[in-house]
Amino acid sequence: MRRVSILGATGSIGQNTVDLIARNADTYDVVALTGAGNIGQLAADATRLGAQIAVTAHEDRLEDLRAALQGSGVEAAAGEAAITEAAARPADWTMSAIVGAAGLAPGMEALKHGATLALANKESLVCAGQLLLATAKQHGAQILPVDSEHSAIFQALQGEDMTAVERIIITASGGAFRDWPLAQLADATLEQASSHPNWDMGQRITIDSATLFNKAMEVIETREFFAVDPDQIEVIIHPQSLIHALVGFNDGALMAHVGPPDMRHAIGYALHHPKRETLPVERLDLAAIGQLEFRAPDEARWPALRLARETMAAGGLTGAVFNAAKETALDGFIAGRIRFPHMAEVVEDTLTQLSGENGLIAATMTLDNVAHVDHLARTAAWTAIDKRAGQ
Ligand code: NAD
Ligand code: MG
User: Fold this and answer.
1) Domain locations in the chain?
2) Fold of 315-388
3) Global confidence as pTM
C-alpha cells in the first residue's frame, strides 16, 4: 500500500486530491491530512480515508477537531509545528497544497523524510527554490510539479534532452479582467476579482489570476523547476485555458500540452508518475471547441510580469520579498484597504524598499533567513498599503 499525505487537504487542490485517492481508497494508506479553519471537512475526510492523523493550523481549534473525530480512531493535532511534524511522518507521496509561504516548512520536512513531493504550493519555489531543490537532492527525494503549466512542461519534456530546449511558453487565461477597459480596473470589486472564467480554484489564486501575479509566480517557478534562463520563458494569453504550456526545441518544434481545465489531470499525473492511469476528467471535443486564441500579454494591464523579471534579475532572496509582498497586497485588497491596481504598486514599492538591503537579499538561503526576509517584506508591504488606503 502506498502511504500518502495531503497538506492543505481542505482546499481546492487538496479536495481534488482527496477525490482521486478516495476513488481507489483501498490502494492507499493515508498518513496525514492537514487543514485550517474547515474542521468539519478535515475530520470527515480523515475519517472516510482512515488517516492516521488530522491537523488543523489553528491551535485554538484543537478541541473542535477532537470532538469531530471522536470515535474515528484518527489522531488530532493543531498548530504550525504540528503540521510540520505530521509532514515528517513517513510517506511515499505527499501533496503540498497549503496556500502561501506557510507551505514551505512542511514541504521541506516531507522531502527530508524521503517522500516524493507533489508540489502545488508554488510559493515554496518562489521563496526558496534553491533550498527546496537542494533538500530534495540531499535526501534523494523527488519533486513533481502539480501546477497545470509545470505538469504540462514536465510531460512535454519526457524523453527529451534539456540542451535541445530553446524556450518554454506558459499560457495564461488573462483572468477575470482580461477584456476590461484599463481605466475600470480601479473599480473592480473583490467579488468580481474572485471569479475565474475557466478554472474553479481557491479565492487567493483566483485573484492572483486576475492580476497575473499567479503567472508571474509561475514564471519564477518555471525558472527554478526546469533550470532555464529567465529569457527562455515566455507568457502568452490563451483565453480558452486548454493548452497549458509549450516547449520549443532547437529544431523549431513546439510540443504543446492540451487538456481540460481540471486540476485532477495534473494531480493524477503526479500521483501515478511515471505511469499514466485513467483519470475522471473530461475528454476534449476539439471540433466543438473550434478555435484556440493567443495574444501577447499587455504589460500595462499586468505589471506583475515585469516585476517577476526584475525579481529574477535581482536574485538571492528577492523571490521571498516578491512572494511576501504579493501575499500582503492580496490581504490588503481582500480586506478592502486598497484597490485592485494598487496590488502591483504595493509589490513594486516593497521590492524597491528592500532592494537597498544588499546584505539581506544576498544572505544564504536558509529557512530562517527566508522567514526573516518574509517578515520584513510583509511589514514594508503594509506600510505601502497604508499609504494607499482609502484612495
Ligand atoms: P485553497 O485556499 O483552496 O486551500 C488552501 C489550503 O491550505 C486549505 O487546506 C487551508 O486549510 C490550508 N491553509 C491555509 N492557510 C494555512 C496556514 N497558514 N497553514 C496551514 N495550512 C493553511 O488554495 P488552493 O487553490 O487549493 O491552492 C493551494 C496551493 O496550490 C497554492 O499554492 C496555489 O497557488 C496552488 N495551486 C492551486 C491551483 C488550483 O487550481 N486551485 C492550481 C495550481 C496551483
Ligand atoms: Mg497554474
Assistant:
1) 2-145, 156-259, 315-388
2) Rna Polymerase Sigma Factor; Chain: A (1.10.1740)
3) 0.97
Report whether 83 contacts 63 (CB < 8 A): no
Closest ligand to C-alpha of residue 262 is 1
pLDDT in tens, 78-108: 999 999 999 999 999 999 999 999 999 999 9
- As beta bridge partners, residue 295 has 237
Measured CA to CA, the distance from residue 214 to residue 211 in angstroms comes to: 8
Matching CATH number, 2-145, of 3.20.20.300, 1.50.10.10, 3.40.50.720, 3.40.50.1860: 3.40.50.720
Kindly give the distance from the C-alpha atom of residue 213 to the centroid of ligand 2, in angstroms, as a whole number. 11
Q: What is the pLDDT of residues 182-232, one digit of tens each?
A: 999 999 999 999 998 888 889 999 999 999 999 999 999 999 999 999 999
Cα→Cα distances 290→242, 284, 369, Å: 12, 11, 50
Q: What is the structure's pLDDT at 200?
A: 87
Q: Which residues line ligand 1 (CB under 6 A)?
A: 8-14, 35-36, 57, 83, 97-99, 102, 120-123, 147, 199, 201-202, 204-205, 263
Give distance in angstroms: CA of 122 to centre of ligand 1: 10
Ligand nearest to the CA of 222: 2
Distance 206 CA to ligand 2 centre (A): 10
